[in-house]
Design a protein that fits this description.
This protein is mainly α and 256 residues long. 73% of the residues lie in helices and 0% in strands. Helix 2 packs antiparallel against helix 3.
């Protein structure tokens, strides 16, 4: 079996905490909201979480490939939390009229701060090699992602940022992630030595690491931070533009 075949046939991590957490969250949504949940979006959420934490991607992200580590971060920080918010009932209010909008500064700082925080070399190494730290990292990424997307995607539009503010919010997030991506891709700075040459890893992954190469793997990880993440932000900016111009059209239609 070649290196990439070994990757695809790698170990699946049937972690009972991950599986039980997904099952418990599904049960809780069904009890609380029933048919009001948008179950298609929720199924996508569970699929993304399982891809990140159960599939061989999780094994590769545990000190084998930095690019796999970065892919896992994107799934947990950007994709899964956005899908959770899309899955919530459209008529969810959560006290929005009394509580006002989600604090955008908190959401932005949590989302961008989490990505930079977990790429401090000592913390990145600890999360790659220590299961308890990885669990903390996973929970913090999911929570930070929920805070980040809430001002943009929360079902109650009264709690969202206005379209113009939302565009600024997303554009500056894209710039912040681009800065980290450039740092990883175009500079010799090593943010996660656990993935470097000579790092301890399972022998079964030796061929794969040799095929990918250390420098190429680091550059791919940086490009993942740079291009796909900003593509997500651009898609959300287009969503905000649609809200903006759609709202203007609705107002114009009401004018006699």
């Amino acid at each position: 079996m070649n290196a990439f075949g070994s990757m695809l046939a790698g170990p699946w991590n049937w972690n009972p905490l991950v599986l039980g957490g997904c099952a418990l969250a599904t049960f809780g949504l069904a009890v609380k909201y029933g048919g009001r949940v948008r179950w298609g979006w929720w199924a996508a959420t569970v699929a993304v979480v399982l891809l990140a934490l159960v599939s061989p991607l999780d094994a590769l992200a545990s000190g084998v490939l930095f690019s796999a580590h970065m892919t896992q971060h994107i799934l947990l920080l950007l994709i899964a939390p956005a899908l959770v918010l899309l899955a919530l009932p459209r008529d969810l209010r959560s006290g929005g009229a009394r509580r006002g909008r989600w604090p955008a500064a908190l959401g932005w700082t949590a989302g961008i701060g989490a990505m930079w925080f977990w790429h401090v070399p000592a913390l990145c190494d600890a999360a790659a090699m220590n299961g308890a730290v990885r669990a903390m990292q996973t929970l913090s990424l999911l929570g930070a992602g929920f805070l980040f997307w809430s001002p943009i995607l929360f079902p109650d539009e009264r709690r969202r940022l206005g379209p113009a503010a939302g565009i600024v919010y997303l554009f500056t997030a894209c710039v912040a992630c681009t800065a980290l991506g450039i740092l990883l891709t175009l500079t010799p700075v090593e943010v996660c030595p656990a993935f470097g040459p000579g790092a301890a890893h399972a022998a079964r992954w030796t061929a794969l690491r040799e095929v990918v190469g250390f420098e190429r793997d680091r550059q791919i990880g940086g490009l993942l931070m740079w291009v796909p993440m900003c593509s997500v932000y651009v898609a959300a900016i287009l969503f905000e533009l649609n809200r903006w111009f759609g709202g203007q059209r609705a107002v114009e239609e009401k004018v006699p």
